[in-house]
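Progress note, sequence design subtask.
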Protein backbone atom coordinates (compact mmCIF):
# COMPACT_ATOMS: atom_id res chain seq x y z
CA UNK A 1 0.00 0.00 0.00
CA UNK A 2 1.29 3.46 -0.87
CA UNK A 3 2.29 6.02 1.74
CA UNK A 4 0.85 9.46 2.53
CA UNK A 5 2.74 12.38 1.02
CA UNK A 6 3.06 16.14 0.77
CA UNK A 7 1.11 17.73 -2.09
CA UNK A 8 2.30 21.30 -1.71
CA UNK A 9 3.47 23.29 1.30
CA UNK A 10 0.87 22.60 4.02
CA UNK A 11 -1.31 20.13 2.09
CA UNK A 12 -0.97 16.36 2.41
CA UNK A 13 -2.73 13.32 0.99
CA UNK A 14 -3.36 11.03 3.97
CA UNK A 15 -5.97 8.66 2.56
CA UNK A 16 -7.22 7.18 -0.70
CA UNK A 17 -8.09 3.83 -2.24
CA UNK A 18 -4.35 3.14 -2.49
CA UNK A 19 -3.22 4.72 0.77
CA UNK A 20 -5.85 3.81 3.38
CA UNK A 21 -8.72 1.58 2.13
CA UNK A 22 -10.18 0.64 -1.28
CA UNK A 23 -13.51 2.28 -0.35
CA UNK A 24 -11.97 5.62 0.61
CA UNK A 25 -12.10 8.84 -1.32
CA UNK A 26 -8.98 11.00 -1.34
CA UNK A 27 -8.57 12.45 2.14
CA UNK A 28 -6.47 15.58 2.47
CA UNK A 29 -4.86 17.12 5.54
CA UNK A 30 -4.29 20.89 5.64
CA UNK A 31 -2.00 22.43 8.22
CA UNK A 32 -3.92 25.70 8.36
CA UNK A 33 -2.46 26.59 11.74
CA UNK A 34 -5.11 24.21 12.97
CA UNK A 35 -5.24 20.73 11.42
CA UNK A 36 -8.09 20.40 8.94
CA UNK A 37 -9.19 17.29 7.07
CA UNK A 38 -10.98 17.43 3.75
CA UNK A 39 -13.38 14.45 3.93
CA UNK A 40 -13.10 11.45 6.23
CA UNK A 41 -13.26 8.30 4.10
CA UNK A 42 -15.71 5.41 4.29
CA UNK A 43 -15.06 4.64 7.95
CA UNK A 44 -13.19 1.39 7.32
CA UNK A 45 -9.70 2.85 7.72
CA UNK A 46 -9.80 5.13 10.76
CA UNK A 47 -6.76 3.60 12.47
CA UNK A 48 -4.78 3.73 9.24
CA UNK A 49 -5.63 7.41 8.74
CA UNK A 50 -4.43 8.23 12.24
CA UNK A 51 -1.21 6.29 11.59
CA UNK A 52 -0.73 8.19 8.33
CA UNK A 53 -1.23 11.56 10.03
CA UNK A 54 1.32 10.63 12.70
CA UNK A 55 3.79 9.42 10.06
CA UNK A 56 3.82 12.93 8.57
CA UNK A 57 4.80 14.40 11.93
CA UNK A 58 1.40 15.67 13.03
CA UNK A 59 -0.48 14.92 16.25
CA UNK A 60 -4.03 13.69 15.51
CA UNK A 61 -5.00 15.14 18.90
CA UNK A 62 -4.64 18.56 17.28
CA UNK A 63 -7.22 17.85 14.57
CA UNK A 64 -9.63 20.76 14.52
CA UNK A 65 -12.23 20.14 11.84
CA UNK A 66 -13.34 18.17 8.80
CA UNK A 67 -14.60 19.91 5.68
CA UNK A 68 -17.13 17.56 4.07
CA UNK A 69 -17.31 18.00 0.31
CA UNK A 70 -20.56 16.02 -0.01
CA UNK A 71 -22.73 13.45 1.73
CA UNK A 72 -21.67 10.15 0.17
CA UNK A 73 -20.53 7.30 2.40
CA UNK A 74 -16.99 7.13 0.98
CA UNK A 75 -16.49 10.74 2.13
CA UNK A 76 -18.40 10.77 5.44
CA UNK A 77 -18.14 7.27 6.92
CA UNK A 78 -15.32 8.27 9.27
CA UNK A 79 -16.89 11.47 10.58
CA UNK A 80 -18.39 10.02 13.77
CA UNK A 81 -15.04 8.44 14.66
CA UNK A 82 -13.18 11.74 14.36
CA UNK A 83 -15.89 13.58 16.29
CA UNK A 84 -15.98 11.08 19.14
CA UNK A 85 -12.25 10.48 19.46
CA UNK A 86 -10.73 13.84 18.53
CA UNK A 87 -13.53 16.35 19.03
CA UNK A 88 -13.37 17.69 15.48
CA UNK A 89 -15.96 20.06 14.10
CA UNK A 90 -17.84 18.81 11.06
CA UNK A 91 -18.30 21.46 8.37
CA UNK A 92 -20.71 20.85 5.47
CA UNK A 93 -23.20 22.62 3.25
CA UNK A 94 -26.63 22.95 4.81
CA UNK A 95 -28.25 21.12 1.86
CA UNK A 96 -26.23 17.97 2.58
CA UNK A 97 -26.38 18.30 6.37
CA UNK A 98 -29.63 16.35 6.73
CA UNK A 99 -28.14 13.33 4.92
CA UNK A 100 -25.03 13.42 7.13
CA UNK A 101 -27.10 13.68 10.30
CA UNK A 102 -29.66 11.04 9.29
CA UNK A 103 -27.67 8.63 7.13
CA UNK A 104 -30.37 8.68 4.46
CA UNK A 105 -29.41 8.77 0.78
CA UNK A 106 -25.68 8.50 1.35
CA UNK A 107 -25.07 5.34 -0.70
CA UNK A 108 -24.29 2.77 1.99
CA UNK A 109 -26.07 0.14 -0.11
CA UNK A 110 -23.36 0.40 -2.77
CA UNK A 111 -20.56 -0.32 -0.30
CA UNK A 112 -22.10 -2.72 2.19
CA UNK A 113 -20.78 -0.81 5.20
CA UNK A 114 -22.51 0.68 8.21
CA UNK A 115 -22.79 4.39 8.95
CA UNK A 116 -23.07 6.16 12.27
CA UNK A 117 -24.99 9.43 11.79
CA UNK A 118 -23.33 12.46 13.31
CA UNK A 119 -23.98 16.12 13.82
CA UNK A 120 -22.93 18.89 11.46
CA UNK A 121 -21.42 21.64 13.59
CA UNK A 122 -21.05 24.30 10.91
CA UNK A 123 -23.66 24.49 8.14
CA UNK A 124 -22.47 26.48 5.15
CA UNK A 125 -24.42 28.47 2.58
CA UNK A 126 -23.55 29.27 -1.03
CA UNK A 127 -20.26 31.09 -0.44
CA UNK A 128 -18.36 31.03 2.85
CA UNK A 129 -14.90 31.66 4.22
CA UNK A 130 -13.35 29.53 6.95
CA UNK A 131 -10.68 31.47 8.79
CA UNK A 132 -7.88 29.61 10.50
CA UNK A 133 -4.75 31.02 12.09
CA UNK A 134 -2.56 30.38 9.04
CA UNK A 135 -4.91 30.32 6.03
CA UNK A 136 -8.37 31.38 4.96
CA UNK A 137 -10.16 28.54 3.18
CA UNK A 138 -12.91 29.67 0.84
CA UNK A 139 -15.87 27.43 0.12
CA UNK A 140 -17.91 27.36 -3.08
CA UNK A 141 -21.28 25.63 -3.49
CA UNK A 142 -21.11 23.35 -6.54
CA UNK A 143 -24.39 21.41 -6.75
CA UNK A 144 -24.68 18.61 -9.27
CA UNK A 145 -23.03 15.55 -7.75
CA UNK A 146 -25.25 16.12 -4.69
CA UNK A 147 -27.42 19.11 -3.89
CA UNK A 148 -25.00 20.29 -1.22
CA UNK A 149 -21.67 19.53 -2.87
CA UNK A 150 -18.92 22.02 -2.12
CA UNK A 151 -15.38 22.74 -3.21
CA UNK A 152 -12.79 24.60 -1.17
CA UNK A 153 -9.67 26.51 -2.08
CA UNK A 154 -6.85 28.39 -0.40
CA UNK A 155 -4.02 30.68 -1.44
CA UNK A 156 -0.70 29.10 -0.45
CA UNK A 157 1.69 30.73 -2.88
CA UNK A 158 -0.36 28.75 -5.37
CA UNK A 159 -4.14 28.44 -5.49
CA UNK A 160 -4.94 24.94 -4.22
CA UNK A 161 -8.42 23.66 -5.05
CA UNK A 162 -10.12 20.78 -3.26
CA UNK A 163 -12.57 20.05 -6.04
CA UNK A 164 -14.31 16.87 -4.76
CA UNK A 165 -15.73 14.37 -7.27
CA UNK A 166 -15.36 16.31 -10.49
CA UNK A 167 -15.48 13.01 -12.37
CA UNK A 168 -18.97 12.26 -10.97
CA UNK A 169 -20.70 9.93 -11.46
CA UNK A 170 -23.69 12.08 -12.32
CA UNK A 171 -26.51 9.56 -11.93
CA UNK A 172 -29.96 10.92 -11.16
CA UNK A 173 -30.64 7.84 -9.02
CA UNK A 174 -27.80 9.00 -6.75
CA UNK A 175 -29.21 12.52 -6.45
CA UNK A 176 -27.15 14.07 -9.23
CA UNK A 177 -28.19 16.80 -11.64
CA UNK A 178 -26.04 17.01 -14.82
CA UNK A 179 -27.29 20.49 -15.72
CA UNK A 180 -26.31 21.91 -12.33
CA UNK A 181 -23.08 19.91 -12.42
CA UNK A 182 -22.06 21.50 -15.73
CA UNK A 183 -22.59 24.96 -14.26
CA UNK A 184 -20.59 23.98 -11.19
CA UNK A 185 -17.64 22.70 -13.21
CA UNK A 186 -17.57 25.99 -15.10
CA UNK A 187 -17.43 27.73 -11.72
CA UNK A 188 -14.39 25.61 -10.82
CA UNK A 189 -12.71 26.45 -14.13
CA UNK A 190 -13.21 30.13 -13.42
CA UNK A 191 -11.21 29.78 -10.20
CA UNK A 192 -8.07 29.13 -12.30
CA UNK A 193 -6.46 26.88 -9.70
CA UNK A 194 -2.79 25.97 -9.89
CA UNK A 195 -3.25 22.63 -8.12
CA UNK A 196 -6.34 20.43 -8.06
CA UNK A 197 -6.86 17.92 -5.25
CA UNK A 198 -9.60 15.72 -6.71
CA UNK A 199 -11.99 13.51 -4.78
CA UNK A 200 -10.75 10.14 -6.05
CA UNK A 201 -8.21 10.59 -8.81
CA UNK A 202 -5.49 12.46 -6.95
CA UNK A 203 -3.48 15.55 -7.77
CA UNK A 204 -3.38 17.61 -10.97
CA UNK A 205 -0.92 20.41 -11.69
CA UNK A 206 0.09 22.89 -13.07
CA UNK A 207 -2.84 25.14 -13.97
CA UNK A 208 -2.99 23.89 -17.56
CA UNK A 209 -3.46 20.29 -16.37
CA UNK A 210 -6.13 21.39 -13.89
CA UNK A 211 -8.03 23.12 -16.68
CA UNK A 212 -7.65 20.14 -19.01
CA UNK A 213 -8.98 17.73 -16.38
CA UNK A 214 -12.04 19.80 -15.52
CA UNK A 215 -12.79 20.65 -19.14
CA UNK A 216 -12.83 16.95 -20.03
CA UNK A 217 -15.68 16.22 -17.62
CA UNK A 218 -17.44 19.46 -18.44
CA UNK A 219 -17.53 18.42 -22.12
CA UNK A 220 -19.07 15.08 -21.13
CA UNK A 221 -21.76 16.79 -19.07
CA UNK A 222 -22.55 19.25 -21.85
CA UNK A 223 -23.00 16.34 -24.25
CA UNK A 224 -25.38 14.65 -21.79
CA UNK A 225 -27.44 17.80 -21.30
CA UNK A 226 -27.64 18.46 -25.04
CA UNK A 227 -28.96 14.94 -25.54
CA UNK A 228 -31.90 15.45 -23.21
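Output:
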Amino acid sequence: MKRPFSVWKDVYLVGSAEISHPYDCCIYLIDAGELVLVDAGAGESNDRLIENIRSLGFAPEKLHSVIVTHAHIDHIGGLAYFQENYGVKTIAHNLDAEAIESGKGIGVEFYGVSYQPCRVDVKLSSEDSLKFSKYEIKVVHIPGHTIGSIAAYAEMGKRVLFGQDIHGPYYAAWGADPVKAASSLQKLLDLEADILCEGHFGIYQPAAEVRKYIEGYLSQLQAITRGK
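The first strand starts at residue 5 and ends at 8. Work on this subtask will continue into the next period as scheduled.
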